[in-house]
Design brief:
It is a single chain. This protein is an alpha/beta fold. It has 2 domains: about 200 residues, Thiolase/Chalcone synthase (Peroxisomal Thiolase, Chain A, domain 1); about 140 residues, Thiolase/Chalcone synthase (Peroxisomal Thiolase, Chain A, domain 1, 3-Layer(aba) Sandwich). It contains 11 helices and 13 strands. A 5-stranded mixed β-sheet has the order 1-7-6-4-5, with helices on both faces. Helix 8 crosses helix 9. It is globular, with a radius of gyration of 20 Å.
Length: about 350
């Protein structure tokens, strides 16, 4: 039985607003090339040409980082890398949350639930514990830190928030995604996985405010779903080594996504009493150039586009869990007619696809 789009307003979970925050350091891809050349100076010429081609063809014009390019290629221990992550991500998360609260005209004490998602470093206590103090939330706020879910976690956080709010009408929640893939860069690793990771990733944070309070407006979360690929734990993730978090990224990811796509999308929309033809907006996570191309090939024949996804990738790179929320922000800034639907989608370690159906 599908979910009715005409649920009583008090049981609806709505997205109130989205705010994003970028780190202080930024360079264009052209500006990064001299640094990369210096880093590769001891490698054979053919390898260097291949690396520069990968970076040049990544379809990313600029990226942001908590680490300046002058310091990016300095060798660091795992402890030093993680300390950079902690120092750099805390202010990003706080600024994103403060901006979102200001946009919504909420106070920090209006929040009943806080979810923080991040996978690019370690903090115990987690980010949310610090935010409770720095922003001044209530002492009885419910907190949930989410890690180890990679790029999918932006959507994961929204799913968890939706389930909490649906069970607790009249409440409000914040989901904050903050990531620094750049602090996981391996300065002594010249493998293709490390190269590709450096070519596509950047740092950033985003905050989404959600509500089951009937006074709050915004697109409604109609349905949500997770799809798990069997026997695919090798496809994506991090390997924990003495020098830090080493990216795991199997070359078969785009091909595997394409193979599973009909099972990922169509049954979910059928359960929601709709179809892909009735979806007006695609709010997709931009994993990288190849995944974008794969999705374009699958949806182009239906007359759908992922222009906003491509623009976020071009402007910021892949910021892991935060990226899909940057795409969502672009749609919330548009004047979208009532009744139109949007499909959120992201992929992450496991391997898994996570989806949300929105209605304006």
């Amino acid at each position: 039985m599908g979910i009715s789009l005409s649920m009583d307003n008090q049981f609806m979970v709505k997205i109130k607003t989205v705010a994003t925050e970028l780190p202080p350091y930024t360079r264009t891809t052209k500006e990064i090339i001299p640094y990369v050349k210096a880093w590769m100076s001891g490698q054979e010429e053919r390898f260097q040409r291949k690396v520069l081609k990968i970076i040049g063809n990544a379809q990313i014009d600029r990226r942001y980082s908590i680490i300046d390019a002058d310091d990016m290629f300095v060798r660091r221990t795992f402890e030093e890398k993680n300390e950079l992550y902690v120092r750099g991500t805390l202010p990003l998360a706080e600024n994103a949350l403060r901006k979102a609260l200001k946009k919504a005209d909420w106070s920090a004490k209006d929040l009943d639930y806080i979810i923080t998602v991040s996978c690019t470093g370690f903090m115990i206590p987690s980010v949310d514990a610090y935010l409770i103090n720095s922003v001044g939330m209530r002492q009885d706020i419910v907190r949930l830190p989410v890690t180890k879910m990679g790029c999918a976690a932006g959507v994961s956080g929204l799913i968890y928030a939706k389930n909490f709010l649906k069970a607790n009408p009249g409440k409000r929640a914040a989901v904050i995604a903050v990531e620094s893939p750049m602090s996981t860069f391996q300065q002594e690793d010249f493998s293709m996985v490390n190269i590709v990771s450096a070519a596509i990733f950047g740092d950033g944070a985003a905050c989404v405010l959600l509500s089951s309070n009937e006074k709050d407006e915004g697109p409604r979360i109609v349905n949500e779903d997770m799809y798990h690929f069997f026997d695919a734990t090798h496809m994506m993730g991090f390997a924990l080594k003495n020098s830090g978090l080493h990216m795991v990224l199997d070359p078969s990811v785009p091909e595997t996504i394409a193979e599973h796509f009909p099972r990922i999308i169509h049954p979910f929309l059928e359960k929601s009493n709709t179809s892909i033809e009735e979806v007006d907006h695609l709010v997709f996570h931009p994993g990288g150039k190849k995944i974008v191309q794969t999705i374009e090939e699958l949806f182009g024949v239906l007359g759908k586009n992922i222009d906003d996804t491509k623009e976020v990738l071009r402007s910021y790179g892949n910021m892991s869990s935060a990226t899909v929320l940057y795409v969502l922000e672009r749609f919330l800034n548009k004047d979208i007619p009532s009744g139109e639907k949007g499909l959120m989608l992201s992929f992450g370690p496991g391997f898994s696809a996570q989806k949300i159906l929105l209605e304006w």
